[in-house]
Structure formats: structure tokens, C-alpha cells
Amino acid sequence: MKAVTWQGAKDIRVTEVPDPVVEDPTDIVIRVTSSGLCGSDLHLYETLAPFMEPGDIVGHEPMGIVEAVGSGVPHLDVGDRVVIPFNVSCGHCWMCERDLQSQCETTQNTEHGTGASLLGFSKLYGQVPGGQAEYLRVPHADFGAVKVSKQHPDDRYLFLSDVLPTAWQAVEYADVPDDGTLLVIGAGPIGDMATRIARHRGLRVIATDLVDERLDRVRANGVEAIDISGLEGSEVAERVRDLTDGRGADSVIDAVGMEAHGSGGVKAVQKLVGLLPDAVAEPFMLKAGVDRLEALTTAFDAVRRGGTVSVVGVYGGAADPLPMFQMFDKQIQLRMGQANVRRWTDDILALLEQDEDVLGVESFATHHLSLEEAPDAYATFQKKQDGAVKIVFRP
Ligand SMILES: NC(=O)c1ccc[n+]([C@@H]2O[C@H](COP(=O)([O-])OP(=O)(O)OC[C@H]3O[C@@H](n4cnc5c(N)ncnc54)[C@H](O)[C@@H]3O)[C@@H](O)[C@H]2O)c1
Ligand SMILES: [Zn+2]
Ligand SMILES: [Zn+2]
After folding, report:
1. Closest Cα to residue 257, out of 315, 204, 340?
2. Does the beta carbon of 303 sit less than 6 angstroms from any atom of ligand 1?
3. Which atom of ligand 1 lies closest to the CA of 314?
């Protein structure tokens, strides 16, 4: 089959690889009909290169049609339509029983000290072959695979794999008071979807970004958008305080993560680490502070005293300097982590199966491309060119 494989930093290719097969009773194999490209793929594309190996199949946002079913997957048959969560979780361990599927103890990667395995996601997360491919083996499909109806087009359901549950958890963790204001930093796919979920719940939402079309998209959904280009240091937080009686937002979501715009020095270090041999770069990244913290420090500055910061953007450093005095003095509450996808999918699916597309998911993707176009798509998405906000491959 054809698959999108990582070959080196900023070197993504479409290659021929063996067809996947059912290996364990709880596996299924699907024919992939749609597969998303995510901001998390961009971290692998360049910054997290030391943890990748040439030939790794990438992608963690797939859906498709069941082609083969292991003997331990009673809820599925060949021909069923399924969406696959990006977490690989068992559903019955101590963590899964507590709805912490991204910490699943059956698939945790103890040798790296990391949580549950993730599809298409580097050595740190189990090196599980990913979903930007014609076919995909789905481990633990007895719990993971979400069966959906055949009523609506793929894009109605596809974002259940990652964007929707991730944004949903970000809003839950932000714990916005009923009459409160939510600030969403970053209006990429995750930030944009978080604003839609919060607006659907009737909340007041402010968002920031520096890309015009991303700001326009959130404005169209009733969000007050702040263009941060040209603003420096605490000026973004000042703008937010101006809009919130001088106090700051009740809750803030950081939907940017480690590759934030505006952290020049660390960007240079990230590039340098990307050029080092893996044997040197891996321990360096695990010990040093390599994150660009612009979005996170803005979150601590822009949240009101006693407010909550929900971090959904991915960070990877081990010694990042944080403004502890400000965080302590302002009594900031902090929640973060990889989404527990299956924790939220039933609630979200109930919304998606309605006739009306309440979250606008069917018009969410800006590009639908073939797998062959993946190398260009990664480059375009990284540079935020061509109006690319959400790219979906149709293998
Ligand atoms: N926690 C999870 O389970 C989970 C799941 C999926 C994605 N993520 C992470 O969420 C983050 C966002 O993902 P995405 O797909 O939306 O990616 P993206 O890269 O398209 O979006 C990031 C957005 O932030 C904007 N931005 C950059 N610096 C900024 C700054 N200083 N202030 C305001 N905006 C800024 C960019 O212009 C861009 O629009 C990534 O870090 C991704 O890895 C986390
Ligand atoms: Zn994703
Ligand atoms: Zn588990």
C-alpha cells in the first residue's frame, strides 16, 4: 500500500510499504477514507525529529471502512464505518477505568517514561504505524474504534479522532464560569474548534493569532479576535484586560504549544537540536528547555487572578523557565495533557449525529488532497500558506 512516511527533518515522502494485517485478536484493519494533518504532525516534521526513524508512517486522525476484524472485537463487522482515536488505549486498565485513556497502563511507554501509545507518533509514544496511509492496523479496536452511521459525509465524523475531543477537553479543563470569558490563544484547528465548542455553550470568547484567515474564521463564529502581529511582551495581555474590566479572562486555553511565534532565541536552539545526531539530540531535548514559551507566558499574564489556564498545545522541554511568582501570586489553576479521546466521544457523537451541523465540522477543512500531495501539504501547512488551516487527505 501507499503511506506517508517520515524520512528526515522536513523530509516527508509517499512510499510503498507492506499491507497491514490483523496481528492480535483485538485488532482491526481499516481502509482509510479520510485522514487529517495536524499541528502535532508539524512537531514531528521538524522539532521532534530526534525521536523519529526513517520509514515511520505518520498520521493520527484517520477514519474508514473495516476490512478485517480480529476475534476479540465483537462490536464491529467488515463494512462498518469507524473513526479511530489518536490514543491507543485498552479500555479496562486502572487509568482507562478512570477515563484517563491517554495514560493507559496497557500501552504506556515505560522505557521512555511517557503515557499511552499514540498512532503515528515517534519513539516516545510507541512508534505505532500511523493513519496517513491507504490501510491501517488499529490495535485495541475493541475499545478504541468508534462506530459511526453512514448518514453524513466523512468530514462530519473525522474530527472525532483528535480535533473535537482535544478541543472539548481543553474547554472542560478551562472550567469557564457560566457568565465568564474564555481567551483562546492560537486559532489553528484546535483553537478554532475550542472557540466553536465554547460559543455553542453560550460563552463569551476572545481569541488571538497572527494569521489573517484564521482570525477571520473565528470572527465568523462570534469570537472577538485580536491580531497579535506587532504586539510585544505584555501588550497582548493588556488588550485582553482592556476587554475584561481590567481583570483578565476567567479562563485561558493555550492552543499553540512549543512552536509559538515570538520566542526567537529558543527557535534557534530548536533548529540546532534538529541538526544534531539523534544520540546527542535525544538526551539534550529530554533534559533541556527547548520550548518556545510565548503563548504560555501570555496565558499566565492574561488570565485573571484565581482563573484557570488549560494547556492543550504540546510542550516537550524538561527545564523550561516559568514565571512561578506570577503563577503563585495570581493563584492560577493549571490543567493540561494529551486528550483522553474516548472520554468525550460519546457526548460529541450525540451532537454530530443531529441533522444540523452545529459545530460547522463539514466546512472545517480548507483542503482535501490525495496522499501523493502530502510532501507539499506538510510544507504548506507549516508555513501557513495557501489559506491552509485544516488539511484532510483522501487516500
Ligand atoms: N493535547 C492534545 O491532545 C493535542 C491534540 C492535538 C493537537 N495538540 C496541539 O495543539 C497545538 C495546536 O494544534 P493545531 O493543529 O491547531 O496547530 P497549528 O500549528 O495549526 O496552530 C497553532 C496556531 O497558533 C498560532 N500562534 C503561534 N504563535 C502564537 C502566539 N504567540 N500567540 C497566538 N497565536 C500563536 C499560529 O499562527 C497557529 O494558527 C499544537 O501544539 C498541537 O500539537 C494537542
Ligand atoms: Zn492531531
Ligand atoms: Zn488502558
Report:
1. 315
2. no
3. 41
CA of residue 145 to ligand 3 center, whole Å: 14
Residue 268 to residues 244, 272, 273, Cα–Cα distance (Å): 35, 6, 9
Could you tell me whether strands 303-311 and 333-336 are parallel, antiparallel, or unpaired per DSSP bridges? parallel
Q: Report the first-to-last Cα separation within the chain, whole angstroms.
A: 10
Question: How is residue 61 annotated by DSSP?
Answer: -
* Neighbouring C-beta atoms of residue 101, cutoff 10 Å: 31
Task: Summarize the confidence of residues 274-294 as an average pLDDT.
Answer: 65
Query: Which amino acid appears at position 266 of this protein?
Result: V
User: Over the stretch 126-181, which tens digit does the pLDDT of each residue have?
Assistant: 999 999 999 999 999 999 999 999 999 999 999 999 999 999 999 999 999 999 99
Tell me the CA–centroid distance for residue 383 and ligand 1, in Å: 13
Distance CA 42, CA 61 (A): 14
Asked if residue 312 has its Cβ within 6 Å of ligand 1, the reply is yes
- What is the model's pTM? 0.94
Taken as a whole, the chain contains a residue count of: 395
**pLDDT for position 75:** 96
Contact 343, 165 (CB under 8 A): yes
Strand order in 333-336's β-sheet? 224-227, 204-209, 181-185, 249-254, 303-311, 333-336
Residue carrying the nine cell digits 481502509? 31
Q: At what angle do helices 163-174 and 341-352 cross, to 10 degrees?
A: 100
From the CA of 263, give the closest atom in ligand 1.
Answer: 31
Ligand 1 atom nearest to CA at 337: 1
Residue nearest to atom 19 of ligand 1 (CA): 39
What contacts 321, CB < 8 A, 6 or more positions away? 289, 293
Q: Does 340 contact ligand 1 (Cβ within 6 A)?
A: no
Q: What angle do CA 143, 364, 43 make, to 5 degrees?
A: 70
Q: Are 89 and 144 in contact (CB under 8 A)?
A: yes
C-alpha cell at 271: 533548529
- Residue of 169, 209, 256 to mutate, ligand 1, most atoms within 8 A of C-beta: 256
Residues 62 and 85: their CA atoms lie apart, in Å, by 8
CA dihedral sign, ordered 167, 168, 171, 174: negative
